[in-house]
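From the methods appendix. Each design record in this collection lists the tokenized structure first, followed by the designed amino acid sequence. Records were kept in a plain field format so they could be parsed without special tools. The example shown here is representative of the layout used throughout.

RECORD:
FOLD TOKENS (121 positions):
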């Protein structure tokens, strides 16, 4: 059993900042990738950013230059620093982790429950 617990969402005015956190715990042996996705009302879930265990990062074009993903491998934790927020960033943000877990070990993906980010204009 692997759990991802997100925190840090909330209501912020346009131009403001928020920092999301996600911690993975449970029977996970190693994490290869952690990522943040978001889903706005009526839209499909989309990738916001991901970071590999080696520190490589990738961002959606819509957040480049405004969001920064970082991780703490020792604590199986990932962060998303969101600056210059826009109303169109309003969505439920989900954390995802991929790696080896379970017995026997398999490559699996796990999702958090989501945290709501609301940006007012």
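DESIGN:
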């Amino acid at each position: 059993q692997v759990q991802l617990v997100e925190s840090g969402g909330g209501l912020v005015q346009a131009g403001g900042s928020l920092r999301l956190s996600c911690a993975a715990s449970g029977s996970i042996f190693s994490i290869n990738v952690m990522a943040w996705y978001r889903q706005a009302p009526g839209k499909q879930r989309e990738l916001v950013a991901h970071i590999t265990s080696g520190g490589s990062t990738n961002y959606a074009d819509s957040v480049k230059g405004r969001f920064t993903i970082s991780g703490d491998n020792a604590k199986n934790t990932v962060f998303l620093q969101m600056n210059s927020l826009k109303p169109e960033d309003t969505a439920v943000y989900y954390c995802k982790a991929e790696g080896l877990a379970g017995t026997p070990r398999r490559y699996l993906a796990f999702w958090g429950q989501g945290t709501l980010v609301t940006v007012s204009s």
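APPENDIX NOTE: The radius of gyration is 14 Å.
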